[in-house]
Amino acid sequence: MVLALRSITMTTSNTAPPSSLEALDLKGHLTVHDISQCATDFGNLRHLPPSAVLHPAAVSDISAVIKHVFRLGPRSELTVAARGRGHSLHGQAQAPGGVVVRMESLRAPEMRVLAAGGLPCIDVSGGELWIDVLMESLKHGLAPKSWTDYLHLTVGGTLSNAGISGQAFRNGPQISNVREMEIVTGKGEVVNCSTEVHADLFYAVLGGLGQFGIITRARIDLEPAPKMVKWMRVLYSDFSSLAQDQELLVSAEKTFDYIEGFVIINKTGLLNHWRSSSSFKPKNPVQADSFDSDGKTLFCLEIAKYFNPEETDTMNKEVESLLCKLSYIPSTLFETEVSYLEFLDRVHVSELKLRSIGLWEVPHPWLNLLIPRTRICDFAAGVFGKIVSDSNDGPILLYPASKSKWDNRTSAVIPDEEVFYLVAFLSSAPASDAGSLELALRKNDRILEFCWKEGIQMKQYLPHYTRLDEWKAHFGAGWEKFEHRKRIYDPLAILAPGQRIFHKDMH
Length: 507
Fold this sequence. Notes:
16 helices; FAD-linked_Oxidoreductases_BP; single chain; 21 strands; Uridine Diphospho-n-acetylenolpyruvylglucosamine Reductase, domain 3; FAD-bd_PCMH; 507 residues; cytokinin dehydrogenase activity; alpha+beta; FAD; 3 domains; Uridine Diphospho-n-acetylenolpyruvylglucosamine Reductase, domain 2; nine-stranded antiparallel sheet; six-stranded antiparallel sheet; Vanillyl-alcohol Oxidase, Chain A, domain 3; cytokinin dehydrogenase
């Protein structure tokens, strides 16, 4: 066994790929010329070029490359990382001096909707985008049950983390809605796995940060897709009221289909922005005009109810009944009705706007934390308006989640409470704003330090650590199982080196 833990920042290797790797008989192709895009990611914080990029045309291409690297043994510096849309934040999809696998090149299997065991599902490639999975499913009047807010990500990428959005409180994360997968392990073996067949590998890969295998196929659960969404936003002047209402809604038998919160700190003209929107309109324009948001820290509850046009009256009655139970500021109810597709793909609209003004491909020093319910108010009191004094550099989101909807056999790590929150600080640092990146990174450090000093047992989502003690603390009692699974499925630590958990030893 030649497995060791990486505790220092990885350096770039300039080693060219061995001629034996270039000589492999592949259906796709390897290239050493178009590597620049694979040397960065959405976070735009680390730039580590590989020595080669694999564009697989079949699963056998991925298997052949990994088998070759495995046979080279521990003395070889080569590692392998799967890359979808490169939406990682700290170089997790990079392989310095190694081989990056461009998963979007893998088009097999073709998407296929079927009813396995009497329940609808869809077979998709691990490199397929969720937006395309949605479009194909909708042709059959169906859709996956759980989402991320942004759909232009690959299936394999989100399943390697968890996949969380405002539906997770009722349907669980995306990793709770997978029926089976095809995996290429760190030995190059192609394994079909499910809850019943090769179950340990199945659960290891889900939320496994790419450490145990590359997801080349997944079978995703589907449900009937609604046609329309009633989409609402309301405001709160104190965090505790927002949290109480979110927890009331996630525990109710009949509730909204989507629940999310966000924080607005020193953001003037908030209601003016909503008033001018072509979508959101105030429920009562006269009352809304009387509410002054300037200079205040506000908390927004974003909720949605899915429906079909023939169910509009019933849906409206259910919505009114739910709203009556909440303690938001009555004059701040804004609402709209959009198609189901428009609602799910809403972030892409913002992406296109940001791209058009050069503000998409900038550093994104994001921080995502899972906070237990019993400490969420302490966290809010110490962070919002204090450590974080402005939200103009990016949204601050809060998703309530239920532990019972997560499977503890997966590799994903969550707080040990039934209700917890994903708090996402989604900062951007454009080059035009000098010092903004350093400021955002210092802010993240202060938030983490606050949690440590106050004894808040949070967990990072999309975790980023560099030291053994940090990774052990992250996994807690699950570390031994995580390390054991690594020894079984990727004993030479070939896969996903950019996570900086395990290091391929150079004897």
